[in-house]
UniProtKB/TrEMBL annotation:
GS beta-grasp domain mapped to chain residues: 93-194
Domain GS catalytic intervals: 199-650
Pfam families: Gln-synt_C, Gln-synt_C-ter, GSIII_N
Protein name per UniProt: Glutamine synthetase
Length: 759
């Protein structure tokens, strides 16, 4: 079967294929089980640990979770025994330490509960099969550290590394094949020397530092006497990750080597209709997609993932899933679990999830909007402005700390979201720009401006501002059945990479494919450092007084309002005018990944990260090399994939079509003489396009060859990939896309955008 025939058969299969049907849980009488009743049923919650342990042992475990002491062997053994029984009663045959190496995904190695026990008697050795799981097996495992990215911290002959149970994230089971399941133990991954080899260790460090910084500031402004117990003993960073993704048919996906290998289409033209009609966003969800969403949600509910929202996104075949806010580390685990479950369920439904930030040229790409805030152990949101933010000095001190963090370390935040895939999305008029700025909205800007200018605030609490009256219009056409609705004090700005959205900040620039761990780690670190600066300024302002007065607080708030004014921007972040304005303000505009990666070793940022203890200098250096190496490898894989696709499929198809035209011309000339046939005109247009593509492939080969001349220098490879590979691929794509338009459909070997984006 030719590739074109396979394409046609795949399209027929899409039409004829029945939708997969599953059943949500029901009670014995056939009535539905409420979601809340089976939510988290596949999670080994803290309540189960409490039941399994004596009260003193459970109290000890809680202290360990809060970082006050190590987990003793007896407690670990008791938990291990309890979780094994719980998991095996639910079909578990294996357990795994589930961790986040610096590969952009998760990793796991499964071990069976089954073991052999030897008993020696007079008759000889008797071997008995038993199920066992010890505390030491629960606490740690040993994957090969040299086989994961380490940036030089581990060599081939230094293989030892450890996964260690993260007690702050609950264990859970996932269904396996044939009715079995696997117990998952969320873990960190460290080297033999204790260096972080993963994304989670540094995230946990950053959450501890932001808690310490916040508690110190809150103790000061809440007037807690020295030696007294502070009102706030811990602060949590909270996170809600909006996950965007594409869903396409798996049979068509299998016919696109570029999608299979790189996650994006390296060639292809937009169909006549794509997103220009604005009819896909929030439109009716296709039945096959709804079936996939619903089944994935069922699995996620059982896993305790609080998914809340689902809808169509802007581009065709693009969708979004968003959860309820959780503590940041758990939210990251749940986001990675969501991506995994969604992929598995889509596979069962004969679909393929694309998490790449830009799988299709010309339509909107995908992001992972990280909604970030801070909450005290009393449940108070530190970014809640309350009714009168102008007199809420705690909120204002935290707010200016965030402003100060982005002003000081915006370039580092740009680094945290830099990758070869997200580079296609940033700066386009569909996604946040690569210049980091903060949107606060009209109300908060007025609050800050009034403090800076020492004047009364404009009245933002008038009834006409708070409500929109839908019962009548300026034309006095009344619709009495429609009630008045409340209106937010501030509009939203989707062009801002870092926007305040009521009681949180939305970090919109994070890529859809990447783990939120690293961006949130950097954000936590920058804010923790900024809060320390604000606290120091407050101590200096209050002098020898035991507690700061309102005037002291206001003076410090004003100081940071003035110093951070350049980072605030309320306008169109997509406009050329903003790029020019940002340059005048001195804001960095980091356009390429290699340039962004350099910020990790910039002393202004590196000193902050190492001083806080979130990274050691060796960990920073290793991550710098890992990011450069990953970038270079990504582009080299894309270039080789493109070269193979063009040379083995696109050019041969063009040759075949060209040959067919030539035969037609020759045949018609034999009948009509030297008449200028339409076929000859088509041939004259097609031939230069074929030659152009051939020339582009030669140039692409040259760029790949330049990459192969560089050895053992990840930084040089990344720069060469940016300088040579990217331009060569862009030129080759332009030639291939022109040729696609000219090639008759019966000869074109791979699914076109018109087939991939509509099913």
């Amino acid at each position: 079967m030719s590739l074109n025939s396979a394409r046609v058969e795949s399209l027929r299969d899409i039409i004829d294929r029945p939708t997969r049907v599953i059943s949500y849980p029901k009670k014995a009488d056939g009535t539905p089980v409420y979601t809340s009743e089976f939510f988290g049923e596949n999670v080994f919650h803290l309540q189960q640990i409490a039941k399994a342990l004596p009260k003193p042992a459970f109290a000890s475990f809680l202290k360990q979770m809060r970082g006050r002491q190590a987990l003793d062997r007896a407690t670990a053994d008791a938990i291990a025994h309890a979780v094994r029984i719980w998991a095996m009663d639910r079909g578990a045959t294996h357990f795994t330490h589930w961790f986040q190496p610096q590969t952009g995904t998760t990793a796991e190695k499964h071990d069976a509960f089954l073991t052999l026990k030897s008993t020696f008697t007079a008759a000889g050795e008797e071997v008995t099969a038993i199920d066992a799981f010890s505390g030491s097996q629960l606490l740690q495992a040993e994957p090969d550290a040299s086989s994961f990215p380490s940036g030089g911290m581990r060599t081939t002959f230094e293989a030892r590394g450890y996964t260690v149970w993260d007690t702050t994230s609950p264990m859970f089971i996932q269904e396996g094949p044939h009715g079995t399941s696997v117990l998952y133990i969320p873990s960190v991954f460290i080297s033999y020397n204790g260096d972080a080899l993963d994304e989670k260790t540094v995230l946990l460090r950053s959450t501890e530092q932001i808690s310490k910084s916040c508690v110190e500031l809150l103790s000061l402004i809440e007037s807690v006497p020295v030696g007294a117990q502070p009102r706030t003993s811990h602060v949590f960073t909270t996170l809600g990750t909006e996950q965007e993704y594409f869903l396409i048919d798996r049979s068509l996906y299998a016919l696109r080597p570029d999608l299979k290998t790189t996650g994006r289409t390296l060639i292809g033209n937009l169909p006549p209709k794509h997103q220009q009609m604005d009819d896909h966003y929030f439109g009716r969800v296709p039945s096959k997609v709804m079936a996939t969403m619903s089944e994935a949600e069922l699995e996620l509910f059982r896993l305790g993932v609080p998914v809340k929202t689902r809808h169509n996104e802007v581009a065709p075949q693009q969708f979004e899933l968003a959860p309820i806010f959780e503590e940041a580390s758990l939210a990251v685990d749940h986001n990675l679990l969501t991506m995994d479950v969604l992929s598995k369920v889509a596979h069962k439904n004969k679909l393929k999830v694309l998490y790449h930030e830009k799988p299709f040229k010309g339509v909107n790409g995908s992001g992972k909007h990280c909604n970030w805030s801070m909450s005290t152990d009393r449940g108070e949101n530190l970014l809640d402005p309350t009714v009168k933010p102008e007199t809420n000095y705690r909120f204002l001190l935290i707010l200016v700390s965030v402003l100060h963090a982005v002003q000081q370390h915006g370039a580092l935040l740009r680094t945290s979201i830099s990758s070869s895939s997200n580079e296609h999305r940033l700066g386009a008029c569909e996604a946040p720009p690569s210049i980091l700025s903060i949107f606060l909205g009209e109300h908060l800007n007025e609050v800050l401006d009034s403090i800076e200018e020492s004047r009364p605030i404009k009245n933002f609490s008038m009834p006409e501002i708070q409500t929109i009256k839908l019962g009548g219009t300026a034309l006095d056409v009344k619709v009495a059945s429609l009630p008045s609705i409340s209106r937010d004090l501030t509009d939203r700005n989707r062009t801002s990479p870092f926007a305040f959205t009521g009681n949180k900040f939305e970090f919109r620039a994070v890529g859809s494919k990447q783990s939120p761990s690293f961006p949130v780690t950097i954000l936590n670190a920058a804010v923790a450092s900024a809060i320390q600066d604000v606290t120091s300024a407050l101590r200096e302002q209050m002098g020898s007084k035991p507690f700061p007065s309102d005037a002291d607080k206001l003076a410090v708030i004003k100081k940071f309002i003035v110093s951070t004014k350049n980072i605030r921007f309320e306008g169109d972040g997509y406009s050329d005018a903003w790029i020019e304005e940002a340059g005048k303000r001195g804001l960095p505009n980091i356009r390429t990944c290699p340039e962004a990666f350099e910020q990790l070793l910039n002393p202004a940022h590196a000193t902050m990260l190492t001083k806080l203890g979130i990274f050691s200098q060796s960990e920073l250096t290793s991550r710098y090399f890992i990011m450069n190496e990953r970038y270079a490898k990504d582009l080299l894989v894309e270039a080789n994939t493109m070269r193979t696709l063009l040379a083995q499929q696109i050019l041969p198809a063009a040759f075949e079509y060209r040959g067919s035209l030539a035969q037609s011309v020759q045949y018609l000339n034999g009948i009509e003489g030297e008449a200028q046939s339409p076929e000859l005109e088509a041939l004259k247009v097609l031939t230069p396009a074929v030659k152009e593509l051939q020339s582009a492939i030669v140039s692409l080969d040259g760029a790949i060859a330049k990459m192969h001349t560089i050895h053992d220098d990840a930084v040089a490879e990344a720069k060469a990939a940016s300088d040579y590979i990217l331009p060569a691929m862009q030129a080759a794509r332009a030639a291939a896309d022109r040729l696609e338009v000219m090639t008759a459909d019966r000869y074109y070997p791979i699914p076109r955008y018109s087939e991939l984006l509509w099913f």
